[in-house]
Amino acid sequence: MQHFSDEELVRLYVETQRNTYFEKLYERYCDKVYRKCLSFTKDPLRAEDLTHDIFLKLVVKLSSFREQAKFSTWLYSITYNYCTDQLRSHNLRREVYMDDNWERLDVESDDGLAEMAEMEAKQLEKALHQLAPEEQTMLLMKYQDDISIRDIASINGLTESAVKMRLKRSRDKLRKNYLEGALFWLLLAIKVALSIRWPFR
User: Fold this and answer.
1) Roughly what angle, to the nearest 10 degrees, separates helices 133-143 and 160-197?
2) Does the domain made of 1-95 have the CATH classification 1.10.1740.10?
3) What is the pLDDT of residues 39-61, one digit of tens each?
4) pLDDT digit string (tens) for 66-96?
């Protein structure tokens, strides 16, 4: 069973309806789907519920898998879309956050640099939250999960040029949000510094 590819397991499950094939897919991807759900909710219990729901949906949807993209990409798309829908319909706090590889900057032991890097990471995360869920999703698929433009286009029923255009617009918005936030904190820091320096002005 271990040597079967994801796509072979899907085909075998659809043909035979034997649970062992689905269980193998579940075993391979349960933790990854859970971590992605957790990145949307920051609530372990809610993430468990979403993961359970997604795999229930997957059982029903497996027969519609056409292998236009890798199974993992297709499953991540279902996960993203479901979590985004839940975010919208249940008015969850928009706290999609970036995985560690986005947040950690190589600042080693310098405490001052580490504090600045943490502030920058938080500002970037805050800027990301200001985007619409669909924009967040597409950016994270491309730049966090390294899903190709072609696969994103296939998953979302878009052309590759449309995906590139949406990514560019979302990047521009992210940059604008980030710079506006950074400028606000810089001005605030200057104001605080001046008031400390000249308290009797």
Assistant:
1) 100
2) yes
3) 888 889 999 999 999 999 998 88
4) 887 789 888 988 898 888 888 776 654 444 4
Judge: domain 107-201, CATH 1.10.10.10.
yes
Ranges of H-type helices in the chain: 6-16, 19-41, 44-61, 71-89, 100-103, 111-129, 133-143, 149-156, 160-197
The one-letter amino acid at 133: P
What pLDDT score was predicted for residue 201?
A: 46
* Domain assignments of the chain as residue spans, ordered by start: 1-95, 107-201
Q: Is the dihedral of CA 24, 30, 31, 36 positive or negative?
A: positive
Distance, CA of 55 to CA of 74 (rounded, Å): 13
